[in-house]
Design goal:
This protein is α/β, with parallel strands linked by helices. Helix content is 23%, strand content 22%. It has five helices and nine strands, in the order βββααβαβαββββα.
Length: 190
């Protein structure tokens, strides 16, 4: 069933997520070595990347030809994956100028993610945690919907394999990339 809403626009009446403390354990921890498949057909081990890396985790990307699951817009923080990804695309030059790599991360499989990456012209790869290995190891906040385990929206700044900063909750999602750029500019690598 085709969508009648605009994937690129956030409705004005979305519920705002609150900080429930579900990410309080993440700053300062070292990522475990765990290669994740990407939309470019390779595997990336976030723990082994040098320098700074930004990983924005999102619940799931919508498609223009498919309706979202019933009740999607009523879940605080669920709506906005396309605007968030497009914002990271639009700020990608600034992030690269700050010597930062960018990856998106969801529990969707790479085939599904590849369609979104191509349609949205993303200049970075999306990582798949379809097997929930990342979610199991790091215990980021997740939620269940219609038999799917989905990550709540959060953004990690990783420096040499260690989580340096966490943006959570992320709202509105279309401003997250700009907030990340501002934080990185205010916190140069030590």
């Amino acid at each position: 069933m085709a969508r009648t809403d605009n994937l690129h626009q956030l409705p004005a009446d979305l519920p705002v997520p609150v900080d429930d403390g579900a990410c309080d354990h993440l700053p300062g921890i070292w990522l475990p070595s765990m290669p994740l498949p990407t939309t470019a057909g390779r595997a990336i081990d976030l723990a082994s990347l040098p320098g700074r890396t930004v990983v924005y985790a999102y619940p799931r990307t919508g498609r223009p030809d498919q309706a979202m699951p019933p009740g999607w817009d009523a879940i605080p923080g669920a709506r906005g994956c396309t605007p968030q990804s497009c914002a990271f695309r639009d700020h990608h030059g600034e992030l690269r100028a700050l010597s930062v790599q960018v990856f998106g991360l969801s529990t969707q499989d790479t085939t599904y993610q590849r369609e979104a990456a191509e349609r949205l012209h993303l200049p970075f790869e999306l990582l798949s945690d379809v097997d929930l290995a990342f979610a199991s190891a790091l215990r980021p906040p997740t939620f269940e919907l219609h038999g799917m385990t989905l990550m709540k929206r959060l953004t990690l700044v990783v420096a040499g394999g260690r989580i340096e900063h966490v943006f959570y909750p992320v709202f509105p999602p279309d401003r997250n990339a700009g907030d990340v750029v501002a934080w990185l500019e205010a916190h140069p690598p030590g």
